Amino acid sequence: MPSSLRYLAFLLGGAILSGWAGYSLRERKANPEAISSSGQGATRSAVRDDDRSRDAVEDFPAQIRRMMAETTKAPQHATLIPAWDKIRGFDLAQLDEAMLIAGDPLEGSGRNVVAVMLLSRWAQLDPQAALASIAEREESSVKEVVLGGVLGTWMENDPDAAYQWATANVKKSPWLRPESLRATAMLADPAEVALEKSKRMPEGVRRELIGILARSMAGSAEERERCFAMLEGMSSSERSVAAQAMMRATASSSPQAALELMESLPLEPQALAAERSASLQRFSGEKPAEAVAWLEAHPDAGNEKERGIAFNRWIERDEAAATEWLDAHENPRRVLADAVTGVNLEMLANRSGEDWRNHQGKRLRSFYDRWEKQDPDAAARWLGSAAPDVANYITREDHGDEQ
After folding, report:
1. Which of 34, 139, 242, 397 has its CA 20 to 30 A from that of 207?
2. Where is the composition biased (Polar residues) (predicted)?
């Protein structure tokens, strides 16, 4: 996501949804100098006095243009807070005039902060009209951020109505996640209260809420235990949703830790297989040597595809070390069979990029040649069942040097 969109997402997700001024008040209590980008510690009253003096000599269009210039040049608390303080007092007639001046909130890669603020204020006064003004627009990353933020504003004030609108309009914006937005709004209540309320909500909302809570409580054994205690009485499928969320949250920082955690979590069989595979894929991509070692130490944790992909990625990263390990292995035939399987599946899954395929084809041929010497019957059986375009890298005369 471009930096301007990341900032816009922060703006909508943190400032507007927290009420802009309320957010800044907490910020100022923690850091009284924060509202001054120049470091001079300007006070809120001084800012308001300055605004009033300028308003006395500026007409309304000039005020809007000045706010646009200031927030574009320095989009920080010192400019955003006064702008929102003014805009949140606009009525519909003022909004109509201001929006004509400010322009399209979806243009400029999210840099038109004043236009987004105006849209958010419109959403406070007439949310359905505000959302309808952008829901039919062409899909874009800016639309995604702005529409989600404006919908979130409505979700805070009238969550049921906002959820119904999002559910009815999801086809217009396929990336909308009404269940996630509704579940997030429920977290204004304590977790136990939100979970109790979720029992009367659609299943999708309840599962989203469980996932959000589980991700936030995945960091320690005590928190995980507390989470599952709150889920007491819920179905095994819903407890598995929490376990999956914990696995994913843990894997984002340490796939190995996630793999070692999975046996202690109440994952249903299909979910266990999916999360194990995803964590192994991530582990192999980030630290292939450690992934190979972990799979060797946990022979029941991975299949031939996952072992083969891990070894292939290790040999890509450090061919000398991976080859030395293979030469010393007590069962090189199994390692080579896995490696051939892993390369084959990666090639079948990715048919774009001839340079990449030729590179993988050379590696496949190298693995196959070594495997054929170790176990010719098994190698021949595999070759007989391989896809023709993959087998061609092994059987053709040039040994895959060129397509």
Report:
1. 139
2. 34-43
48 and 118 co-located in one domain = yes
Residue type, 151: L
| Contact status, residue 178 vs residue 208, Cβ threshold 8 Å | no
Q: Where are the alpha helices (DSSP H) in 126-268?
A: 127-135, 141-157, 159-169, 178-186, 191-198, 203-216, 221-230, 236-251, 255-261
Q: End of a domain among 234, 254, 286?
A: 286
- Provide the residue range defining the domain that includes 242: 177-286
d(C-alpha 23, C-alpha 34), whole Å: 12
Which CA distances in Å does 336 have to 10, 258, 308, 327, 362?
Answer: 49, 27, 8, 11, 14
Assess whether 26 and 123 both reside in one domain: yes
> What confidence tens digit (pLDDT) does each residue in 17-68 have?
344 433 333 333 344 444 333 343 444 454 455 555 555 557 999 999 999 9
Q: Does 63 share its domain with 206? A: no
Q: Within this chain, do residues 313 and 244 fall inside the same structural domain, yes or no?
A: no
SS3 category, 217: coil
Q: Tens digits of per-residue pLDDT, 114-145?
A: 998 899 889 889 999 998 888 888 878 778 88
Using an 8 Å Cβ cutoff, are 314 and 287 in contact? no
Largest Cα–Cα distance in the chain?
91
pLDDT tens readout for residues 320-347: 999 999 999 999 999 999 999 888 877 7
What the block records as the tokens of 294 is: 């972990």
Which phi and psi angles does 199 have, rounded to 5°?
Answer: -65, -20
Amino acid at 235: S
What tokens does 387 get?
A: 């896809």
Cβ atoms of 181 and 162 within 8 Å: the answer is yes
Same domain, 150 and 206: no
The conformation of residue 330, written as its DSSP 8-state character, comes to S
Instruction: Report yes or no on 292 lying in a domain.
Output: no
Q: How many CA atoms lie within 13 A of 106 on its CB side?
A: 19
Burial profile 344-373: b = 16 or more Cβ within 10 angstroms, e = fewer: bbbbeeeeeeeeebeebbebbbbbbebbbe
